[in-house]
Write a structure and sequence with these properties.
This protein is an all-beta fold and 112 residues long. It contains no helices and 11 strands. The strands form 2 sheets. Strands 2, 4, 5, 6, 9, 10 and 11 form a 7-stranded mixed β-sheet that branches. It has a 4-stranded antiparallel β-sheet with strand order 1-3-8-7, with no helix packed on it. Strand 7 and strand 8 (76-81) form a beta hairpin. The protein is globular.
Length: 112
């Protein structure tokens, strides 16, 4: 399965963005989907995980501000990001370990 991430952009601190990750086929058979992010010069970190139909998990730094969700009718995973901070600036990647697939990344820049 191929993944395509979109929705990044430039936003002021305190603002919101919604990222999308669209799969090339149905996600009904996928068990786990994740969002990662990588800031310049830093390692790629796990941001949020959804075990489809079971539950979600978040990194401590985004808990209460970000929400991961899926729309199976659109084969798409979302990341709603609220109360954005400059330290959220990074390239965001979507992933499913079921197929070891990665999206191409979408850049989020939060200005102070």
């Amino acid at each position: 399965v191929q993944l395509q991430a979109s929705g990044g952009g430039l936003v002021q601190a305190g603002g919101s963005l919604r990222l999308s990750c669209t799969a090339s086929r149905s996600i009904n058979s996928i068990n786990v989907m994740r969002w990662y992010r990588q800031a310049p010069g830093k390692q790629r970190d796990l941001v949020a995980t959804t075990v489809l139909g079971v539950g979600t998990n978040y990194a401590h730094s985004v808990k209460g501000r970000f929400m991961i969700s899926t729309d199976n009718t659109k084969n798409t995973m979302f990341l709603q990001m609220n109360s954005l901070k400059p330290e959220d600036t990074a390239t965001y990647y979507c992933n499913t370990p079921d197929y070891n697939s990665w999206g191409q990344g979408t850049l989020v820049t939060v200005s102070s």
